[in-house]
Structure formats: structure tokens, C-alpha cells
């Protein structure tokens, strides 16, 4: 089987945690890697952002990234990318014709790619599989950060109505699509993401010691880490406000440290804004702001932490939570989206209702004080994270592909383009 994946706005080879690169990059890269190893040929089409990238990157046998020139290399925000949809689609068509490439189906990721994938699937007479990763109506329902446009919601409705198959991360996401997009549940398949459990492994005491020395953190400190893009929707401000409350209460013995790992993302976001919040909470001396780190370095950050916090306002799954648990670090996460699947409340970490800093302070303080429970949760977390593998995810996705092809009947112009 040959699959064309569309990931227009961000390349699977970009560094997660910076700009628009995040969990979706990790997802596309790992799922393409495993599909290729299992015998499915995958080309991932993405927008070129540097002339030095080259047109084709051979990642490994059966998995290529194709960089398509569409608009200027630099200076385009994600919000500007709809202006380049036609150019990007044209670039993909030009590549496939020039190289006589043919695909059995198109799998698009995110709504921008979905619009391109919808067109390409119709042109080629092949089915469209779509994964939204995030959804405008869901994000707007939480009222955090800048609101998503009605135009995006309409585009997503078109994709929900016209894709042959929709792939979601959890049953919770299925319910959200039913609530906000009136989707036909028969076209939805749940494929849980995985984690690289060969890379993200529990650290020995020596690993933890080395990681803390490298970060300049006292060996006997209690450490809480946040890993992700710095935007309000991911909730770093919630963690900083909560840790300010923990410090003021003064119930945790020994020094405290906070690690914020990631880069600013989205309109109006800046690292400086979160530094100011840390200052307001009296955390300047105990907080380390780190830029985005590759997975090989994230391992050490997870291992250096006593707790990893995931205070997002919504997550379709929660890759950071699973990665952290794979290293033996318990997670305190918001009880939203797919995080209740990623974190077993009371066993591998704690789930917090809402985003009130005082409630988060209660949960963080509970685990920072109770060493035996925290350590036991970390041990259980390793076992739990081991249930999520990219190889298994790819196998499930390949089954979705096969079922989609079996049931596909080309209908060309008869497809519904309404969307509102």
C-alpha cells in the first residue's frame, strides 16, 4: 500500500516544542516510521520553510518527506497559511506527475492539510482519511487564548462530512465530534498514539543525578516540569500560579524547582510573558526556562523531575504525559480530553478538575510531600506507558486504511461541498 500523508503547516522533522511543532509532528513522524517498517510506503508532504531542506528527504526505507515550495520560506504565521493552500496543492500535484507517483489513499493531518487532501483525493480518485488533532469548535468551547475562526470550523465540517474515514485518538474525541460536528460515527476509528518506550525509559539514580547536575538543579530538590509549547491553551501559567501557591504554603520540605521546557507558539505568545508570571509568583530564583529540546534530551528532563505537569485545557491524547510516565515520572494532568486515558488517576498520577491554581497546588503538594506514594506511582506509570506503542498504533491504522479501501466507492463531483 502507498499512502500520501499531508502535513502542510509543520514538518514531521521539525523540533517539537517550538513554533507550530508539537505533538502532531511526533505523531506523524512515528506513525510514518512504523508504517514503513511494516510494509506501507509513506510520503509525507509538507511546506518547505528553508531552501536548504531539499525537495526529498529519505528518512528511512519506505518513508520520505517531500518539501513543497508554497509561498515564502519564512515570515508566514500559521494563520496566513490558508493563502497558500492552492500553491501547496499545486506543488503536490506537480511532484506526483513529474515523478509518476500514485497513491492508494490520502491521509491528511489538521484542517489545513485536510482541505488540500480533500482536493487531491478527488483528483486522484482515492479515499481521504483525516485526522484533525485539534478542532476549532472544541478549542473555542474552552474559551482560552485567541478564538478559532468560523471559516476554520466550516472547513472542518466539510472534512467531517466528506472524508471516507476519520481517525481520532480517544473515545472522548469521538464524543466531541458528535457534539460539535454531528459526525456519522460509522466513519470514525479510534487509534491511540504511542510512545517511544525504547527511548523514554526509567532513569537510575545515577541518571537522575547526572540530569540534575547538567540542569544546575540541587540533587535533593523537589522538581516539577512542564514540557510543551508555551501558549495559554497548554496551561503553563496554571502551573506557575499553582507553584507560587505551593511555595507560599510552605508545607514541602526542602528546595523546590520548576522547569519550563518549550518555545513560544501562537499569536501573542512569548516566553517573556511566562517569565513575568514566574516573577509575580516569586518563582524567579527557582524556575528554569529551557528552549525546546529534542527527544533524546527530553528523556533527561523527565528523569530529572519528580512530577511532570500537563495543565492543558484540552488534549486529544497527551503524548507528554505518556513519555513522562515511560521514564518513571508520575504526572499531574488536567482531567480533559484524552488525558484520563493517558494518566490513571490515583495510580500513575493525579487528574485535576478545572484549572484553578489552588486545586493544582493541592495535587502537586500532595505528591511532593508523600514520597512513598509518588515513587510507587512512578513505578506503576512505567508499566502503564508500556501499553502504548507506535508499532501497535501503526498496525491499527493500517487496518483502518484497508477497511477504508475495501468500502470506497469513488463519487467525484457528487461529494458534498456544503459544510455549513
TrEMBL record:
Residues reported to bind Mg(2+): 302-303, 305, 329
Residues involved in 1D-myo-inositol 3-phosphate binding: 9, 20-25, 78, 110, 134, 152
EC numbers for this chain: 2.4.1.250
Alphabetical keyword list: Glycosyltransferase, Magnesium, Metal-binding, Transferase
Positions annotated to bind UDP-N-acetyl-alpha-D-glucosamine: 15-16, 23, 229, 234, 293, 315, 323
Molecular function terms, GO-annotated: acetylglucosaminyltransferase activity; D-inositol-3-phosphate glycosyltransferase activity; magnesium ion binding
Annotated ranges, domain Glycosyltransferase subfamily 4-like N-terminal: 22-194
Catalysed reaction equations from the record: 1D-myo-inositol 3-phosphate + UDP-N-acetyl-alpha-D-glucosamine = 1D-myo-inositol 2-acetamido-2-deoxy-alpha-D-glucopyranoside 3-phosphate + UDP + H(+)
Enzyme superclass (EC): transferase
Record-linked InterPro entries: Glyco_trans_1 (IPR001296), Glyco_trans_4-like_N (IPR028098), Glycosyltransferase_grp1 (IPR050194), Mycothiol_biosynthesis_MshA (IPR017814)
UniProt-listed GO biological process terms: liposaccharide metabolic process; mycothiol biosynthetic process
Signal peptide: none
Domain Glycosyl transferase family per the UniProt entry, residue ranges: 209-381
UniProt keyword Glycoprotein, yes or no: no
PANTHER family attached to this UniProt entry: SULFOQUINOVOSYL TRANSFERASE SQD2
Family according to the record: Belongs to the glycosyltransferase group 1 family. MshA subfamily.
Biological role: Catalyzes the transfer of a N-acetyl-glucosamine moiety to 1D-myo-inositol 3-phosphate to produce 1D-myo-inositol 2-acetamido-2-deoxy-glucopyranoside 3-phosphate in the mycothiol biosynthesis pathway.
Subunit structure: Homodimer.
Name of protein: D-inositol-3-phosphate glycosyltransferase
